[in-house]
Specification:
globular, Serine Threonine Protein Phosphatase 5, Tetratricopeptide repeat, mainly alpha
Protein backbone atom coordinates (compact mmCIF):
# COMPACT_ATOMS: atom_id res chain seq x y z
CA UNK A 1 0.00 0.00 0.00
CA UNK A 2 1.40 3.35 -1.02
CA UNK A 3 0.46 6.78 0.25
CA UNK A 4 -0.38 8.28 -3.11
CA UNK A 5 -2.94 10.67 -4.52
CA UNK A 6 -3.35 14.18 -5.76
CA UNK A 7 -4.44 17.23 -3.85
CA UNK A 8 -8.14 17.96 -3.90
CA UNK A 9 -10.17 21.14 -4.15
CA UNK A 10 -10.51 21.77 -0.43
CA UNK A 11 -9.25 24.78 1.45
CA UNK A 12 -5.63 25.87 1.18
CA UNK A 13 -5.03 24.81 4.80
CA UNK A 14 -6.52 21.38 4.12
CA UNK A 15 -4.29 20.92 1.07
CA UNK A 16 -1.23 22.00 3.04
CA UNK A 17 -1.80 19.43 5.77
CA UNK A 18 -2.67 16.78 3.17
CA UNK A 19 0.68 17.27 1.40
CA UNK A 20 2.47 17.15 4.75
CA UNK A 21 0.73 13.88 5.62
CA UNK A 22 1.61 12.48 2.21
CA UNK A 23 5.32 13.30 2.68
CA UNK A 24 5.37 11.88 6.21
CA UNK A 25 3.66 8.70 5.03
CA UNK A 26 6.25 8.15 2.32
CA UNK A 27 8.92 8.46 5.01
CA UNK A 28 7.22 5.75 7.06
CA UNK A 29 6.20 8.22 9.80
CA UNK A 30 2.63 6.95 9.94
CA UNK A 31 1.63 8.35 13.34
CA UNK A 32 2.80 11.83 12.34
CA UNK A 33 1.01 11.39 9.00
CA UNK A 34 -2.21 10.48 10.84
CA UNK A 35 -2.02 13.76 12.72
CA UNK A 36 -1.47 15.73 9.51
CA UNK A 37 -4.35 14.05 7.66
CA UNK A 38 -6.67 14.63 10.63
CA UNK A 39 -5.73 18.32 10.58
CA UNK A 40 -6.42 18.38 6.85
CA UNK A 41 -9.89 16.95 7.49
CA UNK A 42 -10.50 19.37 10.35
CA UNK A 43 -10.06 22.13 7.78
CA UNK A 44 -12.16 20.39 5.12
CA UNK A 45 -14.18 17.25 5.92
CA UNK A 46 -14.85 16.76 2.20
CA UNK A 47 -11.21 16.29 1.20
CA UNK A 48 -11.41 12.79 -0.30
CA UNK A 49 -7.62 12.56 -0.74
CA UNK A 50 -7.10 13.18 2.97
CA UNK A 51 -9.60 10.43 3.83
CA UNK A 52 -7.66 8.12 1.49
CA UNK A 53 -4.34 9.04 3.12
CA UNK A 54 -5.79 8.60 6.60
CA UNK A 55 -7.23 5.23 5.63
CA UNK A 56 -3.88 4.03 4.29
CA UNK A 57 -2.10 5.11 7.47
CA UNK A 58 -4.57 3.12 9.55
CA UNK A 59 -4.00 0.08 7.33
CA UNK A 60 -0.23 0.37 7.60
CA UNK A 61 -0.60 0.56 11.39
CA UNK A 62 -2.71 -2.61 11.38
CA UNK A 63 -6.00 -0.84 12.19
CA UNK A 64 -7.94 -2.25 9.28
CA UNK A 65 -11.49 -1.33 10.26
CA UNK A 66 -10.68 2.32 10.70
CA UNK A 67 -8.81 2.18 7.42
CA UNK A 68 -11.79 0.67 5.65
CA UNK A 69 -14.11 3.35 7.02
CA UNK A 70 -11.87 6.16 5.75
CA UNK A 71 -11.45 4.59 2.29
CA UNK A 72 -15.21 4.15 1.98
CA UNK A 73 -15.69 7.78 2.95
CA UNK A 74 -13.17 8.82 0.27
CA UNK A 75 -15.19 6.91 -2.33
CA UNK A 76 -18.48 8.31 -1.06
CA UNK A 77 -17.11 11.81 -1.59
CA UNK A 78 -15.43 10.98 -4.92
CA UNK A 79 -16.94 7.84 -6.53
CA UNK A 80 -14.42 7.89 -9.41
CA UNK A 81 -11.43 8.02 -7.04
CA UNK A 82 -9.41 5.18 -8.60
CA UNK A 83 -6.63 5.10 -6.01
CA UNK A 84 -9.04 4.87 -3.07
CA UNK A 85 -11.02 2.14 -4.85
CA UNK A 86 -7.82 0.23 -5.53
CA UNK A 87 -6.71 0.57 -1.90
CA UNK A 88 -10.08 -0.62 -0.63
CA UNK A 89 -10.01 -3.56 -3.03
CA UNK A 90 -6.52 -4.43 -1.78
CA UNK A 91 -7.82 -4.50 1.78
CA UNK A 92 -10.72 -6.74 0.75
CA UNK A 93 -8.26 -9.05 -0.98
CA UNK A 94 -6.08 -9.30 2.12
CA UNK A 95 -9.15 -10.04 4.25
CA UNK A 96 -10.28 -12.73 1.76
CA UNK A 97 -13.36 -10.67 0.86
CA UNK A 98 -13.11 -11.46 -2.82
CA UNK A 99 -16.82 -11.06 -3.53
CA UNK A 100 -16.31 -7.37 -2.81
CA UNK A 101 -12.80 -6.92 -4.23
CA UNK A 102 -13.12 -8.47 -7.69
CA UNK A 103 -16.20 -6.53 -8.92
CA UNK A 104 -14.70 -3.28 -7.63
CA UNK A 105 -11.47 -3.86 -9.54
CA UNK A 106 -13.23 -5.05 -12.69
CA UNK A 107 -15.24 -1.84 -12.62
CA UNK A 108 -12.02 0.18 -12.36
CA UNK A 109 -10.29 -1.61 -15.27
CA UNK A 110 -13.40 -1.28 -17.44
CA UNK A 111 -13.46 2.45 -16.79
CA UNK A 112 -9.67 2.88 -17.08
CA UNK A 113 -8.34 0.11 -19.34
CA UNK A 114 -4.86 1.64 -19.46
CA UNK A 115 -4.48 1.87 -15.68
CA UNK A 116 -1.63 -0.58 -15.10
CA UNK A 117 -1.88 -0.55 -11.31
CA UNK A 118 -5.56 -1.48 -11.36
CA UNK A 119 -4.78 -4.44 -13.65
CA UNK A 120 -2.05 -5.43 -11.23
CA UNK A 121 -4.43 -5.31 -8.27
CA UNK A 122 -7.03 -7.26 -10.26
CA UNK A 123 -4.38 -9.90 -10.95
CA UNK A 124 -3.83 -10.27 -7.20
CA UNK A 125 -7.57 -10.53 -6.55
CA UNK A 126 -8.02 -13.20 -9.23
CA UNK A 127 -5.16 -15.17 -7.67
CA UNK A 128 -6.91 -15.12 -4.32
CA UNK A 129 -10.05 -16.45 -6.02
CA UNK A 130 -7.97 -19.18 -7.74
CA UNK A 131 -8.91 -17.77 -11.15
CA UNK A 132 -5.44 -18.46 -12.47
CA UNK A 133 -6.04 -17.86 -16.19
CA UNK A 134 -7.68 -14.50 -15.54
CA UNK A 135 -4.86 -13.59 -13.15
CA UNK A 136 -2.24 -14.37 -15.79
CA UNK A 137 -4.05 -12.21 -18.36
CA UNK A 138 -4.39 -9.31 -15.92
CA UNK A 139 -0.76 -9.63 -14.81
CA UNK A 140 0.59 -9.65 -18.36
CA UNK A 141 -1.60 -6.65 -19.20
CA UNK A 142 -0.17 -4.71 -16.25
CA UNK A 143 3.41 -5.46 -17.37
CA UNK A 144 2.63 -4.47 -20.97
CA UNK A 145 1.29 -1.12 -19.78
CA UNK A 146 4.11 -0.42 -17.31
CA UNK A 147 7.14 -2.65 -18.02
CA UNK A 148 9.50 -0.49 -15.96
CA UNK A 149 7.27 0.21 -12.97
CA UNK A 150 8.91 -1.47 -9.95
CA UNK A 151 5.61 -1.80 -8.10
CA UNK A 152 4.00 -3.60 -11.05
CA UNK A 153 7.03 -5.89 -11.36
CA UNK A 154 6.97 -6.75 -7.65
CA UNK A 155 3.27 -7.62 -7.81
CA UNK A 156 3.87 -9.80 -10.87
CA UNK A 157 6.72 -11.53 -9.04
CA UNK A 158 4.37 -12.14 -6.11
CA UNK A 159 1.99 -13.96 -8.47
CA UNK A 160 4.82 -16.10 -9.81
CA UNK A 161 5.76 -16.92 -6.22
CA UNK A 162 2.18 -17.96 -5.43
CA UNK A 163 2.21 -20.21 -8.50
CA UNK A 164 5.46 -21.72 -7.13
CA UNK A 165 7.31 -20.49 -10.23
CA UNK A 166 10.13 -19.52 -7.94
CA UNK A 167 12.78 -19.06 -10.63
CA UNK A 168 10.57 -16.50 -12.40
CA UNK A 169 9.74 -14.79 -9.12
CA UNK A 170 13.42 -14.61 -8.19
CA UNK A 171 14.26 -13.04 -11.57
CA UNK A 172 11.65 -10.29 -11.21
CA UNK A 173 12.50 -9.54 -7.56
CA UNK A 174 16.18 -9.19 -8.48
CA UNK A 175 15.21 -6.92 -11.38
CA UNK A 176 13.50 -4.51 -8.97
CA UNK A 177 16.39 -4.66 -6.49
CA UNK A 178 18.83 -3.85 -9.32
CA UNK A 179 16.63 -0.92 -10.37
CA UNK A 180 17.14 0.54 -6.86
CA UNK A 181 13.80 2.39 -6.93
CA UNK A 182 13.64 5.66 -4.99
CA UNK A 183 10.57 4.39 -3.14
CA UNK A 184 12.16 2.48 -0.26
CA UNK A 185 8.93 0.62 0.44
CA UNK A 186 8.97 -0.99 -3.02
CA UNK A 187 12.61 -2.02 -2.64
CA UNK A 188 11.76 -3.46 0.77
CA UNK A 189 8.91 -5.49 -0.79
CA UNK A 190 11.27 -6.87 -3.43
CA UNK A 191 13.86 -7.90 -0.82
CA UNK A 192 11.12 -9.46 1.29
CA UNK A 193 9.85 -11.35 -1.77
CA UNK A 194 13.34 -12.64 -2.52
CA UNK A 195 13.61 -13.76 1.11
CA UNK A 196 10.33 -15.65 0.67
CA UNK A 197 11.65 -17.40 -2.46
CA UNK A 198 14.72 -18.68 -0.66
CA UNK A 199 12.66 -19.53 2.43
CA UNK A 200 10.18 -21.57 0.37
CA UNK A 201 13.01 -23.42 -1.36
CA UNK A 202 14.53 -24.28 1.99
CA UNK A 203 17.64 -22.28 1.06
CA UNK A 204 17.89 -20.87 4.56
CA UNK A 205 21.50 -19.71 4.24
CA UNK A 206 20.55 -17.50 1.27
CA UNK A 207 17.40 -16.37 3.08
CA UNK A 208 19.50 -15.32 6.04
CA UNK A 209 21.87 -13.31 3.83
CA UNK A 210 18.91 -11.46 2.28
CA UNK A 211 17.27 -10.87 5.66
CA UNK A 212 20.46 -9.48 7.18
CA UNK A 213 20.95 -7.26 4.11
CA UNK A 214 17.41 -5.97 4.62
CA UNK A 215 18.17 -5.37 8.29
CA UNK A 216 21.19 -3.29 7.27
CA UNK A 217 19.21 -1.34 4.64
CA UNK A 218 16.01 -0.93 6.68
CA UNK A 219 16.98 -1.10 10.38
CA UNK A 220 13.69 0.42 11.49
CA UNK A 221 11.38 -1.74 9.36
CA UNK A 222 9.47 -4.15 11.57
CA UNK A 223 8.88 -6.54 8.64
CA UNK A 224 12.62 -7.21 8.47
CA UNK A 225 12.64 -8.50 12.04
CA UNK A 226 9.45 -10.48 11.43
CA UNK A 227 11.19 -12.30 8.56
CA UNK A 228 14.23 -13.00 10.73
CA UNK A 229 11.93 -14.34 13.44
CA UNK A 230 10.26 -16.70 10.95
CA UNK A 231 13.68 -17.90 9.76
CA UNK A 232 15.03 -18.51 13.24
CA UNK A 233 11.89 -20.40 14.22
CA UNK A 234 12.34 -22.61 11.16
CA UNK A 235 15.93 -23.25 12.25
CA UNK A 236 14.67 -24.18 15.75
CA UNK A 237 16.37 -21.13 17.24
CA UNK A 238 13.32 -19.99 19.14
CA UNK A 239 15.20 -17.67 21.47
CA UNK A 240 16.50 -15.67 18.50
CA UNK A 241 13.04 -15.82 16.94
CA UNK A 242 11.57 -14.42 20.14
CA UNK A 243 14.13 -11.59 20.23
CA UNK A 244 13.27 -10.59 16.66
CA UNK A 245 9.52 -10.68 17.27
CA UNK A 246 10.09 -8.49 20.32
CA UNK A 247 12.12 -6.06 18.20
CA UNK A 248 9.41 -6.00 15.53
CA UNK A 249 6.78 -5.24 18.18
CA UNK A 250 9.02 -2.55 19.65
CA UNK A 251 9.20 -0.87 16.24
CA UNK A 252 5.49 -1.27 15.47
CA UNK A 253 3.71 -1.46 18.85
CA UNK A 254 0.40 -0.35 17.34
CA UNK A 255 0.30 -2.89 14.51
CA UNK A 256 -2.47 -5.27 15.49
CA UNK A 257 -1.65 -7.70 12.68
CA UNK A 258 1.96 -8.01 13.87
CA UNK A 259 0.86 -8.47 17.48
CA UNK A 260 -1.39 -11.34 16.45
CA UNK A 261 1.43 -12.96 14.46
CA UNK A 262 3.79 -12.68 17.42
CA UNK A 263 1.10 -14.19 19.62
CA UNK A 264 0.78 -17.12 17.22
CA UNK A 265 4.52 -17.73 17.54
CA UNK A 266 4.33 -17.78 21.32
CA UNK A 267 1.36 -20.15 21.12
CA UNK A 268 3.37 -22.52 18.90
CA UNK A 269 6.29 -22.46 21.31
CA UNK A 270 4.21 -23.20 24.39
CA UNK A 271 4.22 -19.68 25.86
CA UNK A 272 0.48 -19.31 26.21
CA UNK A 273 0.66 -16.49 28.75
CA UNK A 274 2.94 -14.42 26.51
CA UNK A 275 0.71 -15.21 23.53
CA UNK A 276 -2.35 -13.93 25.37
CA UNK A 277 -0.48 -10.71 26.21
CA UNK A 278 0.11 -10.14 22.50
CA UNK A 279 -3.54 -10.82 21.63
CA UNK A 280 -4.75 -8.51 24.40
CA UNK A 281 -2.45 -5.75 23.10
CA UNK A 282 -3.86 -6.33 19.61
CA UNK A 283 -7.45 -5.70 20.68
CA UNK A 284 -6.36 -2.73 22.79
CA UNK A 285 -4.62 -1.18 19.77
CA UNK A 286 -7.49 -2.08 17.47
CA UNK A 287 -10.71 -2.80 19.40
CA UNK A 288 -12.17 -4.19 16.17
CA UNK A 289 -9.34 -6.68 15.55
CA UNK A 290 -11.36 -9.85 15.03
CA UNK A 291 -8.13 -11.87 14.69
CA UNK A 292 -7.14 -10.73 18.17
CA UNK A 293 -10.45 -11.86 19.64
CA UNK A 294 -10.36 -15.17 17.74
CA UNK A 295 -7.00 -16.06 19.25
CA UNK A 296 -7.99 -15.02 22.77
CA UNK A 297 -11.04 -17.25 22.48
CA UNK A 298 -8.97 -20.12 21.05
CA UNK A 299 -6.60 -19.72 23.98
CA UNK A 300 -9.48 -20.10 26.44
CA UNK A 301 -10.89 -23.12 24.57
CA UNK A 302 -7.49 -24.85 24.46
CA UNK A 303 -6.69 -24.23 28.12
CA UNK A 304 -10.22 -24.48 29.51
CA UNK A 305 -9.57 -21.27 31.47
CA UNK A 306 -11.40 -17.95 31.28
CA UNK A 307 -14.37 -19.41 29.40
CA UNK A 308 -16.90 -16.86 30.63
CA UNK A 309 -14.56 -14.00 29.69
CA UNK A 310 -14.01 -15.59 26.28
CA UNK A 311 -17.78 -15.87 25.79
CA UNK A 312 -18.10 -12.11 26.40
CA UNK A 313 -15.28 -11.40 23.93
CA UNK A 314 -16.93 -13.64 21.36
CA UNK A 315 -20.27 -11.87 21.74
CA UNK A 316 -18.54 -8.50 21.37
CA UNK A 317 -16.65 -9.57 18.23
CA UNK A 318 -19.85 -10.91 16.68
CA UNK A 319 -21.36 -7.43 16.96
CA UNK A 320 -18.94 -6.01 14.36
CA UNK A 321 -17.52 -9.02 12.48
CA UNK A 322 -17.99 -9.14 8.72
CA UNK A 323 -19.62 -12.00 6.80
CA UNK A 324 -16.29 -13.81 6.39
CA UNK A 325 -15.38 -13.63 10.08
CA UNK A 326 -18.75 -14.58 11.56
CA UNK A 327 -18.68 -18.34 10.79
CA UNK A 328 -15.52 -18.85 12.86
CA UNK A 329 -16.86 -16.74 15.73
CA UNK A 330 -20.20 -18.58 15.71
CA UNK A 331 -18.36 -21.89 15.73
CA UNK A 332 -16.21 -20.73 18.64
CA UNK A 333 -19.32 -19.62 20.51
CA UNK A 334 -20.81 -23.08 19.94
CA UNK A 335 -17.73 -24.73 21.45
CA UNK A 336 -17.75 -22.30 24.41
CA UNK A 337 -21.43 -22.96 25.08
CA UNK A 338 -20.78 -26.70 25.06
CA UNK A 339 -17.86 -26.32 27.45
CA UNK A 340 -20.05 -24.18 29.71
CA UNK A 341 -22.78 -26.86 29.68
CA UNK A 342 -25.40 -25.06 27.56
CA UNK A 343 -25.81 -27.79 24.93
CA UNK A 344 -28.99 -26.44 23.30
CA UNK A 345 -27.30 -23.08 22.71
CA UNK A 346 -24.26 -24.90 21.34
CA UNK A 347 -26.42 -26.67 18.74
CA UNK A 348 -28.02 -23.37 17.77
CA UNK A 349 -24.68 -21.62 17.24
CA UNK A 350 -23.34 -24.55 15.20
CA UNK A 351 -26.35 -24.34 12.89
CA UNK A 352 -25.97 -20.57 12.64
CA UNK A 353 -22.31 -21.06 11.73
CA UNK A 354 -23.22 -23.54 9.00
CA UNK A 355 -25.82 -21.15 7.64
CA UNK A 356 -23.33 -18.28 7.41
CA UNK A 357 -20.45 -20.26 5.88
CA UNK A 358 -19.20 -19.53 2.33
CA UNK A 359 -20.20 -22.34 -0.02
CA UNK A 360 -16.67 -23.36 -0.96
CA UNK A 361 -15.30 -23.67 2.57
CA UNK A 362 -15.44 -27.45 2.89
CA UNK A 363 -12.84 -27.62 5.66
CA UNK A 364 -14.74 -25.01 7.66
CA UNK A 365 -17.97 -26.93 7.19
CA UNK A 366 -16.32 -30.18 8.28
CA UNK A 367 -14.99 -28.52 11.46
CA UNK A 368 -18.40 -27.15 12.41
CA UNK A 369 -20.08 -30.51 11.78
CA UNK A 370 -17.52 -32.24 13.99
CA UNK A 371 -18.25 -29.76 16.78
CA UNK A 372 -21.98 -30.24 16.29
CA UNK A 373 -21.49 -34.02 16.44
CA UNK A 374 -19.68 -33.73 19.78
CA UNK A 375 -22.56 -31.70 21.21
CA UNK A 376 -25.10 -34.24 19.97
CA UNK A 377 -23.00 -36.99 21.55
CA UNK A 378 -23.10 -35.22 24.91
CA UNK A 379 -26.88 -34.96 24.49
CA UNK A 380 -26.88 -38.72 23.77
CA UNK A 381 -28.46 -38.10 20.37
CA UNK A 382 -26.34 -40.77 18.74
CA UNK A 383 -28.17 -41.00 15.41
CA UNK A 384 -27.60 -37.27 14.85
CA UNK A 385 -24.00 -37.65 16.01
CA UNK A 386 -23.34 -40.31 13.40
CA UNK A 387 -25.08 -38.26 10.70
CA UNK A 388 -22.87 -35.22 11.34
CA UNK A 389 -19.69 -37.29 11.49
CA UNK A 390 -20.52 -38.94 8.17
CA UNK A 391 -21.25 -35.54 6.63
CA UNK A 392 -17.88 -34.28 7.88
CA UNK A 393 -16.06 -37.34 6.50
CA UNK A 394 -17.68 -36.83 3.09
CA UNK A 395 -15.92 -33.44 2.90
CA UNK A 396 -12.44 -35.06 3.01
CA UNK A 397 -11.34 -33.27 6.18
CA UNK A 398 -7.67 -32.70 7.10
CA UNK A 399 -5.85 -35.01 9.49
CA UNK A 400 -6.54 -33.05 12.72
CA UNK A 401 -10.30 -33.23 12.09
CA UNK A 402 -10.10 -36.94 11.30
CA UNK A 403 -8.46 -37.45 14.68
CA UNK A 404 -11.30 -35.54 16.33
CA UNK A 405 -13.80 -37.72 14.47
CA UNK A 406 -11.99 -40.84 15.66
CA UNK A 407 -12.02 -39.55 19.25
CA UNK A 408 -15.75 -38.85 19.16
CA UNK A 409 -16.44 -42.22 17.49
CA UNK A 410 -14.54 -44.03 20.23
CA UNK A 411 -17.07 -42.71 22.75
CA UNK A 412 -20.15 -43.90 20.80
CA UNK A 413 -22.08 -47.15 21.18
CA UNK A 414 -20.81 -49.57 18.46
CA UNK A 415 -23.97 -49.38 16.34
CA UNK A 416 -23.58 -45.60 15.95
CA UNK A 417 -19.92 -45.53 14.89
CA UNK A 418 -19.47 -44.24 11.30
CA UNK A 419 -17.30 -46.06 8.76
CA UNK A 420 -13.81 -44.56 9.06
CA UNK A 421 -12.16 -46.86 6.53
CA UNK A 422 -12.10 -44.71 3.37
CA UNK A 423 -11.00 -41.31 4.55
CA UNK A 424 -8.50 -39.36 2.46
CA UNK A 425 -7.45 -36.36 4.54
CA UNK A 426 -6.38 -33.12 2.95
CA UNK A 427 -2.95 -32.09 4.17
CA UNK A 428 -3.52 -28.34 3.87
CA UNK A 429 -6.38 -26.03 3.00
CA UNK A 430 -7.08 -22.59 4.32
CA UNK A 431 -10.29 -22.30 6.27
CA UNK A 432 -12.22 -19.58 7.99
CA UNK A 433 -13.01 -22.10 10.69
Amino acid sequence: LLLVGCAGNGSEQSRKYYELGRRLGKQGKYHEALDAFNKSLAADRNNAQAHNGLGLCYLLLGQERKGEQELKEALRLKPDFTKAARNLASLYQRQNRMREAVPLLEQITDASPNDAKSWSFLMTAYMSEHQIEKALVAGKRSLELAPNDPTIIVNYANMQKQLTKLDEAERYYKQVIDMNPPDKQVRSLAITGLFDVYFLRGEYAKAKVVALQAKNDFPNNFAVYTNLAMLYEKLNKNELASQNYDKAVELAPNNAVLLVRAGEFYDRTGKGKRAKEMYMKAIKVDPNSVDGYLHIIDNAINTGQGLAEAEAYCQKALSFANQYEKPKLLDQMAVLKRMLGDLDASVKYCKDALGSLPEKDKVGEAAIRVHLAETYREQKKFALTKKELEAALALSPPEPLIKEIETISSKLPPQWVPDLGNTEPKSTEKSSN
